[in-house]
Amino acid sequence: ALHEGHVVTAQELTALLQPVFTQSSRNLILFLQDTLSIDDFTYLSESYSNKNPFQNQVNKLLINLLQEILRSSPSSLVLPAVDCKATRYLLSFLQESGDWKLTNITNLDVSQLEANTSKPNLLVVQLQPHGSGLNEISTLEAIAENDKIIGRLTIDLQERGIHFSVIYTAVRPSRISRRMDVVGKLKRQLMATEEEDSLSYPPLNVTTGNYTCILFYASNFSLKANSSVFIDLTNATFVTQNVDISSSECSDINTTLSLKYTMPVNGISSLEIRFLMTNKFYEGSARNWSTLDSVEIIQDGEKFSKFNVSVISAPAEYSFHCQLVGTSNLYPARLIPSNNEAKNWDVYISRLQIQGFNIENNQFSYASDCAYFFTPAIWMGLVTSVVLLWILAYGIHMIMQLTTNSRFDDPKGPSLSVPQTE
Protein backbone atom coordinates (compact mmCIF):
# COMPACT_ATOMS: atom_id res chain seq x y z
CA ALA A 1 0.00 0.00 0.00
CA LEU A 2 1.36 3.39 -1.04
CA HIS A 3 0.08 6.79 -0.01
CA GLU A 4 -1.33 9.15 -2.62
CA GLY A 5 1.18 11.05 -4.67
CA HIS A 6 3.99 8.65 -3.79
CA VAL A 7 6.55 8.18 -6.57
CA VAL A 8 8.03 4.68 -6.62
CA THR A 9 11.81 4.74 -6.97
CA ALA A 10 13.93 2.19 -8.83
CA GLN A 11 14.83 0.43 -5.57
CA GLU A 12 11.18 0.21 -4.48
CA LEU A 13 10.16 -1.06 -7.91
CA THR A 14 12.74 -3.83 -7.63
CA ALA A 15 11.18 -4.95 -4.35
CA LEU A 16 7.66 -4.81 -5.78
CA LEU A 17 8.64 -7.03 -8.71
CA GLN A 18 10.20 -9.77 -6.59
CA PRO A 19 7.01 -11.93 -6.56
CA VAL A 20 7.26 -12.15 -10.35
CA PHE A 21 10.66 -13.83 -10.05
CA THR A 22 9.73 -16.22 -7.23
CA GLN A 23 6.48 -17.65 -8.62
CA SER A 24 6.42 -21.09 -10.22
CA SER A 25 5.55 -19.78 -13.68
CA ARG A 26 8.18 -17.29 -14.78
CA ASN A 27 6.80 -16.25 -18.14
CA LEU A 28 6.79 -12.46 -18.29
CA ILE A 29 5.42 -10.16 -20.98
CA LEU A 30 6.65 -6.55 -21.07
CA PHE A 31 4.40 -4.28 -23.14
CA LEU A 32 6.55 -1.20 -23.76
CA GLN A 33 5.14 2.04 -25.13
CA ASP A 34 6.75 5.42 -25.78
CA THR A 35 4.38 7.43 -23.53
CA LEU A 36 1.64 6.37 -21.10
CA SER A 37 -0.09 7.60 -17.94
CA ILE A 38 -2.93 6.31 -15.81
CA ASP A 39 -4.90 9.37 -16.92
CA ASP A 40 -5.01 7.90 -20.44
CA PHE A 41 -7.23 5.06 -19.26
CA THR A 42 -9.77 7.21 -17.41
CA TYR A 43 -9.80 10.23 -19.73
CA LEU A 44 -10.06 8.40 -23.06
CA SER A 45 -12.61 5.86 -21.80
CA GLU A 46 -14.91 8.66 -20.57
CA SER A 47 -14.39 11.25 -23.33
CA TYR A 48 -14.96 8.71 -26.11
CA SER A 49 -17.44 6.34 -24.49
CA ASN A 50 -19.01 5.53 -27.87
CA LYS A 51 -15.55 4.79 -29.28
CA ASN A 52 -13.84 3.25 -26.27
CA PRO A 53 -10.31 2.18 -27.30
CA PHE A 54 -10.04 -0.33 -24.43
CA GLN A 55 -11.68 -3.63 -25.36
CA ASN A 56 -9.43 -6.37 -23.98
CA GLN A 57 -10.34 -7.79 -20.58
CA VAL A 58 -7.15 -6.72 -18.78
CA ASN A 59 -7.59 -3.04 -19.58
CA LYS A 60 -11.34 -3.17 -18.85
CA LEU A 61 -10.68 -4.50 -15.35
CA LEU A 62 -8.08 -1.78 -14.78
CA ILE A 63 -10.46 0.97 -15.92
CA ASN A 64 -13.27 -0.32 -13.71
CA LEU A 65 -10.90 -0.41 -10.74
CA LEU A 66 -9.66 3.14 -11.38
CA GLN A 67 -13.18 4.49 -11.81
CA GLU A 68 -14.30 2.84 -8.58
CA ILE A 69 -11.34 4.38 -6.73
CA LEU A 70 -12.13 7.81 -8.16
CA ARG A 71 -15.82 7.56 -7.22
CA SER A 72 -15.05 6.48 -3.67
CA SER A 73 -12.43 9.19 -3.11
CA PRO A 74 -13.79 12.03 -0.90
CA SER A 75 -11.55 14.66 -2.54
CA SER A 76 -9.12 15.20 -5.37
CA LEU A 77 -7.14 12.02 -5.89
CA VAL A 78 -3.44 11.84 -6.72
CA LEU A 79 -2.55 8.22 -7.43
CA PRO A 80 0.92 6.75 -6.85
CA ALA A 81 3.25 6.61 -9.83
CA VAL A 82 6.56 5.11 -10.91
CA ASP A 83 9.56 7.35 -11.46
CA CYS A 84 10.57 7.78 -15.11
CA LYS A 85 14.15 6.83 -14.32
CA ALA A 86 12.97 3.52 -12.86
CA THR A 87 11.01 2.53 -15.98
CA ARG A 88 13.83 3.71 -18.23
CA TYR A 89 16.10 0.91 -17.00
CA LEU A 90 13.33 -1.64 -16.38
CA LEU A 91 14.24 -3.86 -19.32
CA SER A 92 17.91 -3.97 -18.33
CA PHE A 93 16.91 -4.86 -14.77
CA LEU A 94 14.62 -7.67 -15.92
CA GLN A 95 17.32 -9.16 -18.14
CA GLU A 96 19.82 -9.16 -15.28
CA SER A 97 17.39 -10.60 -12.73
CA GLY A 98 17.11 -14.09 -14.21
CA ASP A 99 18.05 -16.56 -16.91
CA TRP A 100 15.38 -15.41 -19.34
CA LYS A 101 14.90 -16.49 -22.93
CA LEU A 102 14.53 -13.01 -24.41
CA THR A 103 12.18 -12.58 -27.37
CA ASN A 104 11.71 -9.14 -28.97
CA ILE A 105 8.46 -8.66 -30.87
CA THR A 106 8.97 -5.50 -32.93
CA ASN A 107 6.86 -6.25 -35.98
CA LEU A 108 3.71 -6.58 -33.83
CA ASP A 109 2.93 -9.97 -35.41
CA VAL A 110 2.16 -12.43 -32.60
CA SER A 111 0.84 -15.19 -34.83
CA GLN A 112 4.34 -16.67 -35.30
CA LEU A 113 5.25 -16.48 -31.60
CA GLU A 114 6.72 -19.66 -30.16
CA ALA A 115 7.05 -19.84 -26.37
CA ASN A 116 9.20 -22.60 -24.88
CA THR A 117 7.70 -23.31 -21.45
CA SER A 118 10.68 -25.42 -20.35
CA LYS A 119 12.55 -22.26 -19.31
CA PRO A 120 11.55 -18.72 -18.28
CA ASN A 121 10.49 -16.49 -21.17
CA LEU A 122 10.73 -12.71 -21.33
CA LEU A 123 8.65 -11.35 -24.21
CA VAL A 124 9.26 -7.68 -25.01
CA VAL A 125 6.49 -6.24 -27.18
CA GLN A 126 7.24 -2.83 -28.72
CA LEU A 127 3.85 -1.17 -29.03
CA GLN A 128 3.07 1.52 -31.57
CA PRO A 129 4.02 5.06 -30.53
CA HIS A 130 1.23 7.50 -29.74
CA GLY A 131 0.37 10.25 -32.15
CA SER A 132 1.09 13.90 -31.47
CA GLY A 133 0.02 15.10 -28.05
CA LEU A 134 -1.95 17.87 -29.77
CA ASN A 135 -4.06 15.39 -31.73
CA GLU A 136 -6.28 13.35 -29.43
CA ILE A 137 -7.87 11.40 -32.28
CA SER A 138 -4.51 10.00 -33.47
CA THR A 139 -3.62 9.17 -29.86
CA LEU A 140 -6.97 7.41 -29.47
CA GLU A 141 -6.37 5.32 -32.59
CA ALA A 142 -2.84 4.38 -31.49
CA ILE A 143 -4.05 3.28 -28.03
CA ALA A 144 -6.91 1.31 -29.59
CA GLU A 145 -4.48 -0.52 -31.88
CA ASN A 146 -2.15 -1.29 -28.96
CA ASP A 147 -5.13 -2.56 -26.96
CA LYS A 148 -5.89 -5.03 -29.76
CA ILE A 149 -2.28 -6.24 -29.78
CA ILE A 150 -2.33 -6.80 -26.00
CA GLY A 151 -5.61 -8.66 -26.20
CA ARG A 152 -4.50 -10.79 -29.16
CA LEU A 153 -1.26 -11.89 -27.47
CA THR A 154 -2.72 -12.60 -24.02
CA ILE A 155 -5.67 -14.57 -25.45
CA ASP A 156 -3.29 -16.60 -27.64
CA LEU A 157 -1.14 -17.57 -24.64
CA GLN A 158 -4.20 -18.39 -22.53
CA GLU A 159 -5.53 -20.70 -25.23
CA ARG A 160 -2.19 -22.52 -25.22
CA GLY A 161 -2.46 -23.00 -21.45
CA ILE A 162 0.64 -20.90 -20.72
CA HIS A 163 0.67 -19.03 -17.41
CA PHE A 164 2.25 -15.59 -17.52
CA SER A 165 2.56 -12.19 -15.85
CA VAL A 166 2.21 -8.87 -17.65
CA ILE A 167 3.90 -5.49 -17.17
CA TYR A 168 2.39 -2.63 -19.18
CA THR A 169 4.47 0.54 -18.98
CA ALA A 170 6.17 3.27 -20.99
CA VAL A 171 9.43 5.14 -21.21
CA ARG A 172 7.98 8.45 -20.08
CA PRO A 173 4.60 9.89 -18.99
CA SER A 174 2.14 11.26 -21.51
CA ARG A 175 0.43 13.63 -19.08
CA ILE A 176 2.02 15.77 -16.37
CA SER A 177 -0.14 17.89 -14.12
CA ARG A 178 0.57 21.61 -13.90
CA ARG A 179 -1.73 22.16 -10.94
CA MET A 180 0.28 24.28 -8.57
CA ASP A 181 -1.90 23.39 -5.58
CA VAL A 182 -1.14 19.68 -5.98
CA VAL A 183 2.54 20.28 -6.54
CA GLY A 184 2.83 22.63 -3.59
CA LYS A 185 0.98 20.29 -1.25
CA LEU A 186 2.59 16.98 -2.19
CA LYS A 187 5.86 18.18 -3.72
CA ARG A 188 5.12 15.77 -6.58
CA GLN A 189 3.75 15.92 -10.08
CA LEU A 190 0.49 14.09 -10.78
CA MET A 191 1.03 10.63 -12.29
CA ALA A 192 4.73 11.15 -12.94
CA THR A 193 7.73 13.26 -12.14
CA GLU A 194 9.55 15.36 -14.65
CA GLU A 195 13.10 14.36 -15.13
CA GLU A 196 15.86 16.52 -13.83
CA ASP A 197 17.95 16.18 -16.93
CA SER A 198 16.96 17.29 -20.42
CA LEU A 199 17.32 13.79 -21.90
CA SER A 200 14.46 11.37 -21.37
CA TYR A 201 16.84 8.42 -21.88
CA PRO A 202 20.62 8.07 -22.15
CA PRO A 203 22.30 8.61 -25.51
CA LEU A 204 23.57 5.72 -27.61
CA ASN A 205 27.31 5.34 -27.20
CA VAL A 206 29.90 3.49 -29.25
CA THR A 207 33.00 2.40 -27.36
CA THR A 208 36.41 1.09 -28.31
CA GLY A 209 37.70 -0.67 -25.22
CA ASN A 210 37.00 1.68 -22.32
CA TYR A 211 36.94 4.74 -24.57
CA THR A 212 33.68 6.25 -25.84
CA CYS A 213 34.19 7.51 -29.38
CA ILE A 214 30.62 8.29 -30.55
CA LEU A 215 27.58 9.68 -28.75
CA PHE A 216 24.20 9.89 -30.49
CA TYR A 217 20.84 11.09 -29.19
CA ALA A 218 17.44 12.04 -30.61
CA SER A 219 14.04 12.44 -29.02
CA ASN A 220 12.43 11.15 -32.23
CA PHE A 221 14.19 9.07 -34.87
CA SER A 222 11.88 7.84 -37.60
CA LEU A 223 11.76 7.17 -41.34
CA LYS A 224 9.09 6.82 -43.99
CA ALA A 225 9.64 4.58 -47.01
CA ASN A 226 7.84 5.29 -50.29
CA SER A 227 5.64 7.86 -48.49
CA SER A 228 3.63 5.03 -46.91
CA VAL A 229 5.64 2.73 -44.59
CA PHE A 230 6.39 4.50 -41.29
CA ILE A 231 9.37 3.21 -39.27
CA ASP A 232 9.90 4.49 -35.73
CA LEU A 233 13.41 3.62 -34.57
CA THR A 234 13.45 5.69 -31.36
CA ASN A 235 12.76 2.91 -28.86
CA ALA A 236 14.89 0.34 -30.65
CA THR A 237 17.84 2.75 -30.75
CA PHE A 238 17.79 4.36 -27.31
CA VAL A 239 15.46 2.46 -24.96
CA THR A 240 15.76 -1.27 -25.67
CA GLN A 241 18.90 -0.68 -27.79
CA ASN A 242 17.81 -3.48 -30.11
CA VAL A 243 20.31 -2.23 -32.65
CA ASP A 244 23.66 -3.57 -33.88
CA ILE A 245 26.45 -0.96 -33.73
CA SER A 246 29.35 -3.37 -34.20
CA SER A 247 30.15 -2.01 -37.70
CA SER A 248 30.78 1.50 -36.38
CA GLU A 249 34.30 2.81 -36.90
CA CYS A 250 36.26 5.44 -34.98
CA SER A 251 39.47 7.32 -35.71
CA ASP A 252 40.92 10.80 -35.24
CA ILE A 253 39.98 11.79 -38.81
CA ASN A 254 36.97 9.71 -39.93
CA THR A 255 34.14 8.29 -37.83
CA THR A 256 31.19 6.18 -38.97
CA LEU A 257 28.14 5.46 -36.81
CA SER A 258 26.48 2.30 -38.16
CA LEU A 259 23.00 1.37 -36.91
CA LYS A 260 21.71 -2.03 -38.06
CA TYR A 261 18.11 -3.12 -37.42
CA THR A 262 16.58 -6.54 -38.03
CA MET A 263 12.95 -6.61 -39.20
CA PRO A 264 12.13 -3.02 -38.18
CA VAL A 265 8.74 -3.39 -39.94
CA ASN A 266 6.97 -5.97 -42.05
CA GLY A 267 8.42 -6.09 -45.55
CA ILE A 268 11.92 -4.94 -44.58
CA SER A 269 14.22 -7.71 -43.32
CA SER A 270 17.21 -5.50 -42.51
CA LEU A 271 17.97 -1.81 -42.39
CA GLU A 272 21.33 -0.10 -41.87
CA ILE A 273 21.76 3.64 -41.33
CA ARG A 274 25.23 5.19 -41.44
CA PHE A 275 26.32 8.63 -40.25
CA LEU A 276 29.70 9.54 -41.80
CA MET A 277 31.69 12.26 -39.98
CA THR A 278 35.10 13.83 -40.58
CA ASN A 279 37.50 15.88 -38.46
CA LYS A 280 39.41 18.37 -40.61
CA PHE A 281 41.61 21.44 -40.10
CA TYR A 282 40.41 24.64 -41.80
CA GLU A 283 42.97 27.40 -42.37
CA GLY A 284 40.32 30.12 -42.47
CA SER A 285 39.37 29.58 -38.82
CA ALA A 286 42.73 28.08 -37.80
CA ARG A 287 41.05 25.19 -36.01
CA ASN A 288 39.64 21.69 -36.53
CA TRP A 289 35.96 21.23 -37.32
CA SER A 290 33.88 18.05 -37.15
CA THR A 291 31.39 17.69 -39.98
CA LEU A 292 28.60 15.24 -40.71
CA ASP A 293 29.25 14.74 -44.42
CA SER A 294 26.58 12.25 -45.42
CA VAL A 295 23.91 9.82 -44.25
CA GLU A 296 23.44 6.45 -45.93
CA ILE A 297 20.51 4.03 -45.76
CA ILE A 298 20.95 0.42 -46.88
CA GLN A 299 17.74 -1.63 -47.13
CA ASP A 300 17.92 -5.43 -47.23
CA GLY A 301 21.64 -5.25 -48.00
CA GLU A 302 21.16 -4.05 -51.58
CA LYS A 303 19.10 -0.86 -51.90
CA PHE A 304 21.58 1.97 -51.25
CA SER A 305 20.43 5.52 -50.54
CA LYS A 306 22.74 8.44 -49.89
CA PHE A 307 21.98 11.90 -48.52
CA ASN A 308 24.27 14.91 -48.54
CA VAL A 309 24.09 16.98 -45.38
CA SER A 310 23.89 20.74 -45.02
CA VAL A 311 24.71 22.88 -41.97
CA ILE A 312 25.81 20.09 -39.64
CA SER A 313 29.25 21.04 -38.38
CA ALA A 314 30.83 22.16 -35.12
CA PRO A 315 34.26 22.84 -33.65
CA ALA A 316 35.97 19.49 -33.14
CA GLU A 317 35.84 19.87 -29.36
CA TYR A 318 32.05 20.42 -29.38
CA SER A 319 29.01 18.28 -30.08
CA PHE A 320 26.38 19.30 -32.63
CA HIS A 321 22.73 19.91 -31.71
CA CYS A 322 19.72 20.75 -33.83
CA GLN A 323 16.03 20.77 -33.01
CA LEU A 324 14.91 19.40 -36.40
CA VAL A 325 16.94 17.45 -38.93
CA GLY A 326 15.53 15.65 -41.95
CA THR A 327 14.55 15.73 -45.59
CA SER A 328 11.90 18.44 -45.22
CA ASN A 329 12.65 21.84 -46.74
CA LEU A 330 11.36 23.46 -43.56
CA TYR A 331 14.07 21.96 -41.33
CA PRO A 332 17.11 24.09 -40.46
CA ALA A 333 19.47 21.14 -41.10
CA ARG A 334 18.59 19.18 -44.22
CA LEU A 335 19.39 15.76 -45.64
CA ILE A 336 19.50 16.22 -49.41
CA PRO A 337 19.02 13.08 -51.59
CA SER A 338 22.06 12.50 -53.81
CA ASN A 339 20.76 9.47 -55.75
CA ASN A 340 17.41 8.27 -57.04
CA GLU A 341 16.98 5.62 -54.34
CA ALA A 342 17.25 8.27 -51.63
CA LYS A 343 14.17 10.05 -53.02
CA ASN A 344 12.04 7.15 -51.73
CA TRP A 345 12.90 7.98 -48.11
CA ASP A 346 11.76 10.68 -45.72
CA VAL A 347 13.83 11.17 -42.56
CA TYR A 348 12.58 12.86 -39.37
CA ILE A 349 14.95 13.49 -36.46
CA SER A 350 14.01 15.69 -33.51
CA ARG A 351 16.49 17.12 -30.99
CA LEU A 352 19.48 15.55 -32.68
CA GLN A 353 22.76 15.67 -30.77
CA ILE A 354 25.80 13.88 -32.08
CA GLN A 355 29.52 13.88 -31.33
CA GLY A 356 32.16 11.74 -32.99
CA PHE A 357 35.41 13.23 -31.72
CA ASN A 358 37.07 14.39 -28.49
CA ILE A 359 34.54 12.87 -26.07
CA GLU A 360 35.44 13.22 -22.40
CA ASN A 361 33.91 11.48 -19.37
CA ASN A 362 31.38 9.66 -21.64
CA GLN A 363 29.34 12.88 -21.92
CA PHE A 364 28.43 15.32 -24.65
CA SER A 365 30.63 18.39 -24.85
CA TYR A 366 29.23 21.90 -25.18
CA ALA A 367 26.77 21.86 -28.10
CA SER A 368 27.06 24.03 -31.19
CA ASP A 369 23.48 24.65 -32.29
CA CYS A 370 22.20 24.85 -35.86
CA ALA A 371 20.07 27.92 -35.10
CA TYR A 372 21.93 30.94 -36.41
CA PHE A 373 21.80 34.34 -34.74
CA PHE A 374 20.79 36.00 -38.02
CA THR A 375 17.87 33.96 -39.31
CA PRO A 376 16.19 34.71 -42.67
CA ALA A 377 13.38 36.48 -40.82
CA ILE A 378 15.87 38.75 -39.04
CA TRP A 379 17.62 39.56 -42.31
CA MET A 380 14.27 40.40 -43.95
CA GLY A 381 13.39 42.69 -41.05
CA LEU A 382 16.78 44.41 -41.17
CA VAL A 383 16.64 44.99 -44.95
CA THR A 384 13.08 46.31 -44.75
CA SER A 385 14.05 48.64 -41.90
CA VAL A 386 17.06 49.98 -43.85
CA VAL A 387 14.88 50.70 -46.92
CA LEU A 388 12.27 52.52 -44.83
CA LEU A 389 14.96 54.52 -43.02
CA TRP A 390 16.51 55.50 -46.36
CA ILE A 391 13.11 56.72 -47.64
CA LEU A 392 12.56 58.67 -44.43
CA ALA A 393 16.03 60.23 -44.60
CA TYR A 394 15.52 61.21 -48.26
CA GLY A 395 12.16 62.79 -47.45
CA ILE A 396 13.61 64.80 -44.55
CA HIS A 397 16.50 65.90 -46.78
CA MET A 398 14.09 67.11 -49.49
CA ILE A 399 11.98 69.02 -46.95
CA MET A 400 15.08 70.73 -45.57
CA GLN A 401 16.04 71.89 -49.11
CA LEU A 402 12.77 73.83 -49.57
CA THR A 403 13.26 77.67 -49.68
CA THR A 404 10.80 80.59 -49.71
CA ASN A 405 10.67 83.41 -52.34
CA SER A 406 12.47 86.69 -51.52
CA ARG A 407 9.68 88.80 -53.10
CA PHE A 408 5.91 88.31 -53.46
CA ASP A 409 3.14 89.76 -55.71
CA ASP A 410 0.91 92.50 -54.26
CA PRO A 411 -2.59 92.06 -55.74
CA LYS A 412 -3.38 95.81 -55.25
CA GLY A 413 -0.20 97.10 -56.84
CA PRO A 414 1.55 96.69 -60.14
CA SER A 415 2.64 93.30 -61.25
CA LEU A 416 5.93 92.04 -59.94
CA SER A 417 8.55 91.87 -62.66
CA VAL A 418 11.53 89.66 -62.14
CA PRO A 419 14.37 90.10 -64.62
CA GLN A 420 15.66 86.96 -66.28
CA THR A 421 19.12 87.71 -64.99
CA GLU A 422 17.99 87.15 -61.39
TrEMBL record:
Belongs to the vacuolar ATPase subunit S1 family. GO terms for biological process: regulation of cellular pH. Residues 212-357 form the V-type proton ATPase subunit S1 luminal domain. The gene is Atp6ap1. GO terms for molecular function: ATPase activator activity. This is VAS1 ATPase. It comes from Lophotis ruficrista. InterPro entries: Ac45_acc_su (IPR008388), VAS1/VOA1_TM (IPR046756), VAS1_LD (IPR046755). Keywords: Membrane, Transmembrane, Transmembrane helix. It is found in: Membrane. It holds the Pfam family Ac45-VOA1_TM.
